[in-house]
Amino acid sequence: MNEIKLDDRLNDIVKKLPQSIDYFNKKDIDYCCHGDDSLKIATEKRKLNQDKILSELKEFIKENKSIKNLSIDEFKDKNTKDKISHIESYHHDIEREMLEDIDKLLSKILLVHYKNHGYELKETYTIFLQIKGHLKAHLAKEEKITFPKFENLDCENILSHIYDLEKEHEDMGDLIGNLKKVTKNFTPPKDACNTYKRAFSKLKELTEDIYLHIFKENSILFKEIRRESLI
Length: 231
What we know:
Layout: H1 10-16, H2 20-26, H3 39-46, H4 50-63, H5 70-76, H6 80-112, H7 114-150, H8 158-182, H9 194-230
Helix pairs in contact: 6-7, 6-9, 7-8, 8-9
């Protein structure tokens, strides 16, 4: 991809230029659950100035052309079994640890800062618990049911399994969107203590890892399995 155009799909941009992930995260452009959207459609959804976004993205890529996302670069070349092992090691295990760490941090600041920030922290924690429950169940389903089936492309209803996971990814995207709204895109209040700031920083880190996790599945692994299942 020598020149980025508005008609290019987000997932194609990210696969060719993984550096774009940081820019899309910064602009809150969903390259994972809606990776098949073109840059034009994505900017329309966010009501962003298309010429400005296109210009900024090109400049961002130019400035960061030497930066590689080894996670994606290496992932693309793996076989299906190794792709699954990569997802479990680099995302499932890490996300489980992050969920527990964040739960402790949010529980702490909910108690300490409830007087001044009770409403927003209550909403934040409620949505986080929804994400935690949804994600832990989703990871278990992938590991115990779906991923083993993916290693056997002759299994029955493999495409329906992919569709089910994609729907769960969409639901996760909606939850993350709600979390971003209530936290003002993970911006702590001016009187936030270090624990408060760390909780929001970890929430941001978690959501960005989930985005990358979903991208690898939706835009690389699932597309590969769909192609192979038709051969």
